[in-house]
Amino acid sequence: MNILSATPVDDGLLITAGGYEDLRAELETLRGDIGPELSERLRDARQDGHLADNPRLFDLLEEQAQLDERIAVVEARLAAAQIAAPATDGRAGIGSRVRVRDLEVGNIVEYELVGAIEPKVGNGRVSVAAPVGRALVGQRVGARLDVATPGGTFLLEVLGVRPADVQPLTRKAA
């Protein structure tokens, strides 16, 4: 596993450290929990009668094929993944939290930029392959940019950029 600078992001194999750990955990679950349980169900189905007319067995074999395919995909992603070190120069990149304001409606949103191969995108996590993520990469505080998405174009202003693992400053109650 290599650690690379997060900017520029042209490589779809860059991933955050958290995303790498999520993939490792998924692979562990697929191999350790789901795989043996499915093998047990396959053994039981094979004992249920003729192999030629056993719809349950055929369904389980299909499920086994899908599991094997997912394991292969996750293994390949882990083998090729390069962990991106969050940018420290004030520019947004993989592993950055970027606070933006939609200048048309005034909404303020914070995004965590993640690699294109990461699981768990959504809930504030945006892939750098998505239109918003792609537009934010390399931007600094104060930047204004038009972002074209399938839902239309909108204007964003970058209000803040920080590494995703750094918590925002909060005021303590007096």
How are strands sequenced across the largest beta sheet?
6-5-4-8-7
- What string, H for helix and E for strand, traces the elements in order? EEHHEEEEHEE
Mean of residue pLDDT? Answer: 85
Tell me the strand percentage band: 25-35%
Total number of beta strands: 8
Main sheet characteristics: 5 strands, mixed
Outline: elongated
From the N-terminal CA to the C-terminal CA, the straight-line distance is 46 Å
Structural class: alpha/beta
Helix content: 25-40%
Number of continuous helical runs = 3
How would you sum up this structure, described in words?
With 174 residues, the chain is α/β, with parallel strands linked by helices. It contains three helices and eight strands, in the order E-E-H-H-E-E-E-E-H-E-E. The chain has helices at 17-46, 55-80, 131-136, and strands spanning 2-5, 14-15, 82-85, 96-102, 108-114, 125-127, 144-149, 152-163. The strands form two sheets. It has a five-stranded mixed sheet. A hairpin with a 2-residue loop joins strand 7 (144-149) and strand 8 (152-163). The longest helix is centred in the N-terminal third of the chain and has 30 residues, at 17-46. Residues 1-10 and 169-174 have low confidence and may be disordered.
